[in-house]
Design goal:
Length: about 280
């Protein structure tokens, strides 16, 4: 069952975001905005799928009549397991957040990595010009896409995580280097890009306990958390003069490739879309 269906200019392909829970997902707002703005035919809604039903749901997707789906927590690995074809980023990260159907086959990619890169390209032009080191805080689902993205632009990626074993596993998978959390402050001196992928700094969670004193003033600091838009980490970085990029753009940019596949056209991440999603977050 597709809930909260956002309709485009006419009947056409239907896609949906799939998760558990899924009521909080902002994809319908974003996809619905583009459907109306670009006057495309189609619709986009939400489908709540329990974890125990995920394998069966994805196995049947190619025959369901849907054009495809976005996949959110906790189903990105189940979606990966169900795909017949992958783009390289999905294979490398083992996670799929965007699905479409081609010649009856279920195809998947991971647009979180592309969204992360597009957000930095958009808001910090030339951030990747001179290589160097990136430090990623956290080693969960979101970190996979971020580590892949940074490595794809030629940065040497170091990962620290509360649970060291997860950092090791991710580093091995994606050609990065794992360190103890206690080494993070010492690593900052060589860091050109600092990324928080942990849930610390999110409204209602604890703050990140990291002294930025050793971080070069030119280093870019970004967070994948976007509620609040300016996390305590970003506020501290900005106060000492570092360039900062918030995480909202990653959410918006990761939605672009799916829209193009299902509905066509050229959806853009504009200030008006940002304001619409921000109003929803704040409302
Ligand atoms: P996501 O898919 O959003 O990345 P996740 O896979 O649950 O979610 O990962 C959350 C990340 O935040 C992990 O790196 C987690 O560290 P652990 O691997 O040690 O669990 C990190 N994290 C969450 N709460 C934390 C806390 N209080 N202190 C430090 N790290 C924390």
């Amino acid at each position: 069952r597709v809930d909260d269906l956002q309709r485009g200019a006419a009947d056409g392909p239907i896609a949906a975001v799939v998760g558990w829970p899924v009521a909080h997902a902002r994809s319908p707002l974003i996809q619905g905005y583009w459907l109306r703005k670009l006057g495309r035919a189609g619709g986009y809604g939400r489908i709540a799928v329990r974890p125990e039903d995920a394998a069966r749901f994805f196995a049947g997707l190619a025959r369901s009549g849907l054009a495809g789906a976005n996949v959110t927590v906790p189903h990105k690995e189940a979606a990966f397991a169900a795909c017949d074809e992958f783009e390289p980023v999905a294979r490398a990260t083992g996670a799929v957040n965007t699905l479409w159907i081609e010649a009856g086959k279920l195809c998947g990619t991971n647009t979180d990595a592309l969204g992360f890169l597009a957000n930095l390209d958009d808001r910090a032009h030339g951030w990747d010009n001179s290589g160097g080191q990136a430090l990623v805080l956290g080693a969960g689902g979101a970190a996979r896409a971020v580590v892949w993205a940074l490595a794809s632009r030629g940065l040497k990626v170091r990962i620290v995580n509360r649970t060291r074993a997860r950092a090791e596993e991710l580093a091995t998978r994606l050609g990065a280097v794992a360190h103890d959390w206690s080494e993070a402050e010492a690593l900052l001196g060589q860091t050109r890009v600092l990324v928080n992928t942990t849930s610390l700094g999110m409204s209602g969670k604890g703050d990140l306990d990291l002294d930025l004193a050793a971080l070069p003033a030119t280093a870019l600091v970004t967070d994948i958390v976007y509620v609040p838009l300016e996390t305590p980490l970003l506020a501290r970085a900005r106060a000492r003069g570092n360039p900062t990029v918030d995480g909202l753009g990653m959410l918006l940019h990761q939605a672009v490739p799916g829209f193009r596949r299902w509905f066509g056209g050229c959806p853009e991440v504009t200030p008006a879309l940002r304001d619409l999603v921000l109003a929803d977050i704040e409302g």
